[in-house]
Amino acid sequence: MVKPTRVTNSIRALRFAAGELTQAELAERVGVTRQTIIAIEQGKYSPSLEVAFQIAHALGVRLDEVFGYPSTDHRTESS
Amino acid sequence: MAEHDMGFEEKIAWAGVIVSIVHFTIYLGVLLTRAATTPMPETPYVDAMLWSIGAAIVVMIVVSIIVAVTTGKDGHETDIRDKQIKARAEFTSRGLLIAAALAALIFAMLELDAFWIANVLYLGFFFSAMLEAITKIALYRGGVPAW
């Protein structure tokens, strides 16, 4: 099955690194449902930029430490 | 496969599918029973339709309260993902509602009986509600693709 989003994330690992933070606790801090955190972790949902920043803040790391996006080969060099 | 964890809105979508099927089946059953002795356009339908719609609304309110109480705080809140899924599902099902409205418009122009106009609209409500709920469930389970 094709993944709905190409955005990757390290939320699960970062939750454990942040003192075994549960999905419910992270959801509470970010202000979303626990199911949304699960969907993001499983790559079933790409969060808005605002929610992405809130997750990074809640985990105490930079945005690019939480989320990634695979680079494409056909990208052109413009400079 | 990982166990799927249903939130409040997904449970309500499932309830919507079941309630829609039940109330539509009962309405259709009553209508067809009455139509056995009366020509279809003259079949009394208004009371059955109103009861069917009214009962479905009441049942959904009761089910929502029960689901909210049993789900508890954990899955009760609605967030931006729920709103996005709702918007997608409404966008997907809107076509059926428009098709039913167009059919009703054409029936009115052709001066068909009110029976057919009311029932094609009722059919449109039913199928669009079904499609909306099924789309929600698919998005909750399969994920929300980017536009």
Oligomerization status of the protein chains: heterodimer
Largest beta sheet: strand ordering of chain A: 1-2
- Secondary-structure element order of chain B, as H and E? HHHH
Uncertain ranges of chain B? none
Characterization of the model:
The complex is a heterodimer of chains A (about 80) and B (about 150). By secondary structure, chain A is mainly α. In chain A, strands 1-2 form a two-stranded antiparallel ribbon. Chain A has five helices and two strands; from the N terminus they run E-H-H-H-H-H-E. Helix content of chain A is about 50%, strand content about 5%. The longest helix of chain B has about 30 residues, at about 45-75. Chain B has four helices and no strands. Chain B is an all-alpha fold. Chain B has one domain (about 10-140). The radius of gyration of chain B is 18 Å and the shape is globular. The chains are: A mainly alpha (about 80), B mainly alpha (about 150). The interface of A and B includes residues 5, 32 and 47 of A.
